[in-house]
Amino acid sequence: MKSTYAALALSGALAAGTARAQAPSQGPMPSTPPPNGAGSSAPAPGETRVYPAASALPGPTPVEAIPPPAMALPDDPIEPYLLTKANGPFMVHAKTFYGPLAERMALALCKELREDFHLPAYILRKKDFPQHSYIRGTPPTAPSETMTSAIKNPEKVRTHDEAAVLIGDEKTLAGSEVLLHKVKKLHPKCLEKMPGLWEWRRGAGLRYATRTTNPYVPAQYLYPKTKDKLVLQMNSGLRSIGHCAGSYSLQVAEFSGRSGFDFHGVGGPPPIVQPENTSPLKTAHDDAERMADKLGRSPEIQRLGVPVYVYHDRTSSRVFVGSFASENDPAFTTVRNELLKHAVDLSNRKQRGRAALDVMIVPAMVPTNVAQIKAQLQ
Q: Do the Cβ atoms of 97 and 162 come closer than 8 Å?
């Protein structure tokens, strides 16, 4: 019986081997390295920068072995090409240069992009904007009106020679995406004559460009914010400051919640929390609207011929009088002097009865720029 089973097993093995030999080939065996694959040392036809997976990519060129540029670098003043706050804000980072000749090499690429490809190219030096560190005279520590950096010693000598070329004055992310695809296809001639740390990237042009933003522009100004629906609803009345024709107006009153001073400091007794139903903020909207209505009906305001406006947000309600084209408008002084003259009379209950103001107005010393407020309501 055992010999019968052995004979059957032997015949089955021979049949399987014969069938496998006669079956059509389905590809290489698992142990056989595929041609031009991961285990092959020969690159595919037509490829010039294909490296075997078994070997690492070439390392950077040693600094002492980097040759000088094979072209005459420009000596033009770099200031007209420097990035400012007015550029962008969405841009494409084309290339970064390093070393003592970084600025001149960046200038050569920037000029070629402007002259040959008609692209708005700019230069950003690391010593002007040292990334996210806080250095005197550079954003974000510099005043908001600073357009270019004014870095001084000792910070100036502590920065490395590094200059990046940025392209674009795009206003949206979608625009920068379109620009990126265009820049990646460019092959500036000057790059072929400049040395680099990564020689295996030579001939790629601007293939490795990436999207970025202007570092001089604060992040809160890059992306549009959704408007507050509650604020829009509160300022939908006829006296809304959104109807002001000018860019400036005179604030005469403000209604808000309670505030106080902590004289005990940290570790003192807990502050007294007032109940919400007694907070002046609860009636601030109605108080401002009532004052604006009484001011608009008063003979003094009607003789001046100036409109009365209100503005409500989540923390306060303000009352404005007049519409002025600029902060130096002569009409502002006239309106303010008249309001100061009649401030007491407007709140005199004995003379005016119900038409008297509940709170005395306090005209501001300078006009308020309401252009940004109106932009939030449009």
A: yes
295-331 pLDDT, tens per residue? 999 999 999 999 999 999 999 999 999 999 998 999 9
Whole-structure pTM value: 0.49
Please, how many CA atoms are within 13 Å of residue 291, restricted to the half-sphere of its CB?
A: 27
Same structural domain for residues 70 and 184? yes
Q: Count of residues for the chain?
A: 378
Pairing type for strands 121-125 and 368-369 reads: unpaired
Instruction: State which amino acid sits at residue 234.
Output: M
358: containing domain: 229-261+278-377
In angstroms, the CA 232 to CA 311 distance is 10
Cβ partners under 8 Å of residue 315, min gap 6: 256, 257, 281
Q: How would DSSP label each residue in 264-321? A: S-TTSPPPPPPPGGG-GGGGHHHHHHHHHHHHHHSHHHHHHT--EEEEE-SSEEEEEE
| Domain-embedded: residue 53 | no
